[in-house]
Amino acid sequence: MIRPFIKKDAFIAPSATIVGYTGISFKTCVMHNSVIRGDLAYCYVGAYCVIEENVVAVAGTIANPSGDVSIEDYCYIGSGSVLRSCTIQRYAIVGNGSIIEENVFVGEASIVEPKSVVPAGTEIPTGQIWGGNPAKFKGNVDKFTFADRGNEMRAMCKQILKWYKPMYLPYSLAWLEKEVLSRRRETEVAETEFSSRTQKG
Question: Which residues cross the membrane (predicted)?
């Protein structure tokens, strides 16, 4: 039986679906209601990626069963996007609601604008901005450094992990919050009593 391989320090939202021949690397975040399917081919998501809500990534189709999905390190895939048997190189951004069709190649640090449709077989070179339906060249990424994008994605993943991962532990952290509130109230009561005694004295 083929099962997904997911690094322990990745975050997969409870409502996300990861099935088939898939791999999710470390510190990557797959958000709510997203679907990553490797039914017919391999679907790989690299490290420090953010797959936003309602994204669908499907590797392989009946017409092209060998078409893998490869999302390399430090990529951002916007909400509601659909990816089919394509390659997204590292540091790339796919805007919200975009459709990336089969055999598309998105080069390093390139940007696909929101609600764009990239036709099958399109190759987007490194560091370019494409948008529209069908997507066309719009310009180049200005003064871009790979280090900056990498640092941004690390910070984003760190923040998401900080916010969401504790919520979905086998046990809730509500008891910790209750303890903090109880201590705060005890401190406030003690300070009030001390203040009233001081005023009387």
Answer: none
